[in-house]
Specification:
Elements: E1 3-5, E2 27-29, H1 30-52, H2 60-69, H3 78-94, H4 99-118, H5 122-132, E3 137-139, H6 144-150, E4 161-165, H7 170-174, E5 179-181, E6 184-187, H8 194-199, H9 210-214, H10 228-234, H11 238-250, H12 255-268, H13 272-283, H14 289-303, H15 318-322, H16 335-338, H17 341-351, H18 356-367, H19 371-382, H20 392-396, H21 401-431
Antiparallel strand pairs: 1-2, 3-4, 4-6, 5-6
Bound molecules: iron/sulfur cluster.
């Protein structure tokens, strides 16, 4: 399937900040869908990262990613509005699967909304609220008694208030961010939002499966078997590097290790044929070929959709890997969660001798259970020549081990390109 058709009615008049009440209804290429969804995910990850580090979601780094992927303009193009709505809609579907993912999505989308809301002018805010027509009323405070009560708290001359039934905004009532009069909560529109945002998560019926989204992490190029050794040391995320090393040492991996690593290898472009050779080479150092073929070969073919229900399985995401439990004799899982502090410190100090501050930061993040942020920092530790000035989530994209890998490959391509250009410039200078 190359195109997805959204069937419900359209809402065409959005501009500046879109806020659809009905799902988008245009056809869209699968590849574009994945691109939109991934870019919005990068923004949400950046917001999450900022919050975990105690920064405001409105920090410079976050605003840079928002401006890059989901800009707010007075005259938004049709394409920008489409991107905003579709990316939101598809993530809304993808993150509707569990209570935990719903909460994650809602929390970061709310922060994103606040950031983008803050980018609007007062007029744009009012026209936005009018356009989406939530039944609110704007008014200026005229009543003398009220004016006296509110004097000093807000600028009464330059602000117009919003009036809604108070039961619609319990969060704001609890936080004393409204004043209540005659059954209505009255507040400045700048601080309006949460209850409405929750409505975005309602009504999921025709689901787009997570695997469709995850398929966008598949590498578009192929990987040769002979390149796995150097690639694992250079560009694999640490969880996969660990599985690779353990397999080479033990000539065996248990079920979850085989699943985690096997699907990752599939995702980076290792063919089924090469995958069978790779696993067989290692396992048959401990068992005969017949045992391997009957006990393990089937599962490898199964992962590639060649056995059983013929499902095209996708590589595990970080959140799935982080939540896998493991025993001390197993090597799967996220190393920032499963490896003991002392062993992790030893590994990091070995690879990051010249970056002791970053090493400490990673250890701290890992101890505080911010595993994916620790991994983003690890990516920077391993790719020290990064000079694009891109925000960290754009570079590392560690919502998924395969995006860690893809971004590493891109990094080395950039480095190669830079040194090629440098040589050309040098040659040209020498010839003059
Ligand atoms: Fe692997 Fe993700 Fe953990 Fe990094 S954060 S080690 S990519 S599971």
């Amino acid at each position: 399937m190359n195109k997805v058709e959204f069937t419900p009615k359209s809402n065409s008049q959005e501009n500046v900040l879109s806020f659809y009440k009905e799902p988008p209804n245009q056809d869209i290429e699968m590849s574009l869908l994945g691109k939109y969804a991934n870019e919005r995910l990068q923004v949400l990850r950046e917001i999450e990262g900022a919050k975990l580090q105690g920064l405001k979601p409105t920090s410079k780094e976050v605003m840079k990613v928002i401006t890059k992927h989901l800009p707010i303009r007075s005259q938004a193009t049709k394409k920008e509005v489409e991107k905003d709505q579709i990316s939101h809609f598809i993530l809304r579907l993808a993150f509707s699967q569990t209570e935990e993912s719903r909460r994650w999505f809602l929390s970061n989308e709310t922060s994103l909304f606040k950031c983008r809301w803050g980018m609007l002018s007062s007029n744009e805010r009012q026209s936005f609220l009018k356009r989406i027509n939530f039944g609110h009323k704007f008014f200026k405070i005229k009543n003398e008694k009220l004016r006296e009560e509110l004097e000093g708290f807000v600028d009464l001359e330059n602000n117009r208030f919003c009036k809604v039934p108070f039961e619609d905004v319990p969060d704001m009532v609890a936080m004393k961010r409204v004043f209540i009069s005659e059954g209505f909560a009255k507040f400045l529109p700048q601080i309006w939002q949460d209850k409405r945002m929750k409505k975005l998560l309602d009504g999921l019926k025709d689901s787009y499966s997570q695997s469709e989204l995850a398929s966008s992490y598949f590498s578009t190029s192929k990987v040769n078997l002979k390149d796995l050794v150097w690639l694992s040391a250079r560009s694999f995320p640490p969880c996969m590097e660990r599985l690779h090393t353990s397999l080479k040492q033990q000539h065996h991996l248990r079920h979850w290790g085989r699943m985690q690593y096997g699907l990752f290898l599939k995702g980076i472009g290792l063919s089924l044929e090469d995958s069978l050779i790779f696993w067989k080479n290692e396992f048959t150092k401990k068992m005969n070929t017949k045992t391997f073929d009957t006990e393990y070969g089937y599962n490898i073919r199964h992962n590639y959709g060649k056995e059983g229900k013929c499902t095209n399985y996708t590589p595990y995401s970080c959140s799935k890997i982080i939540n896998l439990s493991s025993s001390p004799s197993e090597f799967h899982g996220c190393i920032f969660r499963t490896v003991k502090h002392e062993s992790l410190a030893l590994k990091l100090e070995t690879v990051g001798q010249d970056q002791p501050e970053r090493v400490q930061k990673i250890l701290q993040l890992s101890q505080n259970k911010h595993f994916q942020i620790a991994c983003q920092q690890y990516w920077l530790l391993r790719h020290p020549k990064e000079t694009t000035g891109e925000p960290i989530s754009t570079l590392t994209g560690t919502i998924h081990p395969n995006s860690y890998y893809n971004n590493s490959i891109e990094y080395y391509k950039r480095i190669q390109e830079q040194s090629k250009n440098k040589k050309i410039t040098q040659n040209q200078t020498n010839q003059k």
